Structure formats: structure tokens, C-alpha cells
Amino acid sequence: QVQLVESGGGRVQAGDSLRLSCAASGRTFSRYVMGWFRQAPGKEREFLARISRDGVITYYVDSVKGRFTISRDNAKNTVYLQMNTLKPEDTAVYYCAAGTLATSYDYWGQGTQVTVSS
Questions:
Q1: How far apart are CA 6 and CA 43, in angstroms?
Q2: What pLDDT shows up at residue 102?
Q3: What was the pLDDT predicted at 103?
Q4: How far from 7 is each of 26, 66, 100, CA to CA, in Å?
Q5: For residue 90, how many other CB atoms are within 10 A of its CB?
Q6: In DSSP terms, which residues pair with 117 in a beta bridge?
Q7: Residue 43: per-residue pLDDT
Q8: CA pseudo-torsion sign 65, 66, 68, 70
Q9: How is 42-111 classified by DSSP, letter by letter?
Q10: pLDDT, tens digit (0-9, with 9 covering 90-100), for 13-64
Q11: Per-residue pLDDT tens digits for 69-87
């Protein structure tokens, strides 16, 4: 089992940057594909990005491609989401997730709030 704890959220201005972190417990972190998701008020949860077990392969949805970067440090059991040029529409609770498959996530963090004001 994996426990995930996100951090790094906050309130920023449009155009600013934030880096989210997601720390995982246990010694099996490198076995999992990691993903970042977000959920805005009144909207469904949205997939943003994922990274392969070894950190070599990444995938992004179009809405964040070029602005967000996912990375991981398996030695630190941590996955990151670097968010640049933030927009008000990026306001949401951001979640990290771990899965054994790229399209199926078994473990979720509690989320961290990101608020972007114009």
C-alpha cells in the first residue's frame, strides 16, 4: 500500500509559478506510474499528466502541455508538478495518484488547493 501526501499549493497571481510535491510512503514507489489530477469547484476530476516508473516517459493533456512539467525522484519517493504561467482557470484542488497501470490509479493523496487570481 502507498500513502500519498501533496504539498506546495497556495494562492498566486496569474502568470506566477508553483511547484507541487507529492511524497509517497513505502519502499515500492518506483513500481508505480504516477499521475497528477485536479478538480475545480462544480467540475469533474481532470487528468493532467503522468510519468512512467523510471521517469523517462511523460504525458500531458493539451490544456497544460508546455506550461506544466511532471517529474519524479525515486530516491526521495516524490513526484513533482512544476506549474508555470498559471491562469485563473487552473484554480482547483490538485491530487497526485499512484497506479500499476498508466490508466488505472489505485492510491490517491488528499489534495492541495491552488488558487490563481487575475
A1: 20
A2: 80
A3: 82
A4: 18, 22, 23
A5: 22
A6: 13
A7: 96
A8: positive
A9: TS--EEEEEE-TTS--EEE-TTTTTTEEEEEETTTTEEEEEE-S--GGG-EEEEEEEESBTTB--EE---
A10: 999 999 999 999 977 999 999 999 999 999 999 999 999 999 999 999 999 9
A11: 999 999 999 999 999 999 9
Q: Measuring CA to CA, which residue among 32, 26, 1 is closest to residue 98?
A: 32
Q: 103 CB contacts (<8 Å, ≥6 apart)?
A: none
Rounded CA-CA distance 31/41 in Å is 32
User: Are 7 and 23 contacting, i.e. CB atoms less than 8 angstroms apart?
Assistant: yes
Residue 94, beta-bridge partner list: 38, 112
Return the SS3 of 29: helix
